[in-house]
Every structure is written in structure tokens, then in C-alpha cells.
Amino acid sequence: MKLFSFWRSLATYRVRIALNLKGLKPEEVIDVDLMKGHQRQPAFKAVNPQMVIPALVDGEGPVLFESLAIMEYLDEVHPHPPLLPTDPRARAFVRGIAQIVACDSHPLLVPRVRNYLVGELKLDQAAVLKWIRHWVGEALDAIEAHLANDGMTGRFCCGDQPTIGDICLASQAAGAGFFEVDLKPYPTFKRVVGACMQIEAFAAAHPLKQPGAPAAVTH
Predict the structure, then answer these.
(1) Which domain range does residue 19 map to?
(2) How far, in Å, CA of 22 to CA of 17, rounded?
(3) 15, 34, 61, 195: most buried, per Cβ within 10 A?
(4) Residues 97 and 154 in one domain
């Protein structure tokens, strides 16, 4: 198994958590420095034509891409411990929480979007930061409402076992930290993420604990 990774990538953070929960360790982790544009080099474009990470090679067959797809693949191939509940409604809830993060919020924050805002739309850094905080906040508002009101939340976002929903919440919290978004208005979110971070599989996967990461990050 080979993982294409970068310490700051929130999507790769999600996959690292899933791998840790499954007790899987890639034989090789290949650093793709997004800040230096290494994702646009021909060698990586041949791995993932979209030029984003994570990408996972697992034996023969095509490269796996997109964090949610990779996590569900890992759950199907290595079913214990499960990352999705067995109840269909609970599974839909967990997938919905995960998609708010991975499909609706995080894609608006990634380097290629920030670079476009600066390079093509000529926004200054203050305007870009305002953009990021707006979309992080929109997602957090929705997540907090679901967690607090839908009757599915236990210790974790759905019951008392971590799922892909919790994995995505952890990545949302890390991103909020990078861009100094205040989490005080989101007490249920904070509580669930706190429970997640007590688990070594989550804590060890945190971006700031990866090779090459600085001691702290803002913006």
C-alpha cells in the first residue's frame, strides 16, 4: 500500500485516521508538497489527473482517489472496526455529515481555490481569509444544528463508535484551527471532536504531527 500525502492536507488527514483505525500502515508514504506545486508535476499528474491528494495505491488496479471514496473502500476491504453504522438511516446521517465537510466546505478552502482567488480574481489576503471563514462557518452552523437536534449524536456524531462522519469532523476542526475560526458557538461539535481526539488513531494522524509540519500553523 502506497499513500500520496502532504502534512497540511485535510483530505489526507481523513484517510490517515481511517488507516489508523483499521490498523493499516502504508509501506510507503510519498510527500506531495502542495505549497510548492508538486501536485502539478507530470509524475504525480500521471497518478491523479486532477492533481490533488490523497491518492492511494493498494495492490493491483487503478489508483484510488477522493478521501470519502478511499475511506469507504478501506471499510469494505477491511470491515473491522466498521466506519459506517449498520442502520440505513444512521448510515445516511453519517454520510450526510461527512459530505457537508468533504463536499461542501473543504473544497472551497483548498490551495487551488485560494490561488485562483488571488491570482485570477486579485483578492488580497484579507479578502481570501474572509471567504474561508465564511464557508467554514456556514458548514459549522449546519453541522452543529444536525448534531444538536437530529437525535443521532452520542459520544460521537452518530452513537458511541467513531465513523467517517467523525473523521470528517476532525478534519473540519483542524481546518478551522488553521484559519483561526472560533469554535465556541459550536459546543456539540467541539465535544464530539474532543472525544475523537482522545483516540490515538485520530491524534496521531493530525496534520501538525506529520513529517515536515511546523510547530503551529495559521492561515
Answers:
(1) 2-81
(2) 9
(3) 15
(4) yes
pTM of the model: 0.95
Is residue 214 one of the residues assigned to a domain? no
Half-sphere exposure of 102 (CA within 13 A, CB side): 26
Domain CATH number, residue 93 = 1.20.1050.10
C-alpha cell at 209: 504531527
Asked whether residue 216 is domain-assigned, the answer is no
Statement to judge: residues 114 and 199 lie in one domain: yes
The answer on 51 and 9 residing in a single domain is yes
Instruction: Give the Å distances, CA to CA, from 156 to 9, 89, 151, 169.
Output: 23, 16, 12, 10
β-pairing, 28-31 vs 2-5, is: parallel
- Show pLDDT as tens, one digit a residue, over the chain (219 residues): 999 999 999 999 999 999 999 999 999 999 999 989 999 999 999 999 999 999 999 998 899 999 999 999 999 999 999 999 999 999 999 999 999 999 999 999 999 999 999 999 999 999 999 999 999 999 999 999 999 999 999 999 999 999 999 999 999 999 999 999 999 999 999 999 999 999 999 999 999 999 888 877 766
| CA distance linking residue 88 with residue 98, whole number of Å | 15
How many structural domains is the chain composed of? Answer: 2
**Measured distance CA(72)–CA(26) in Å, rounded:** 17
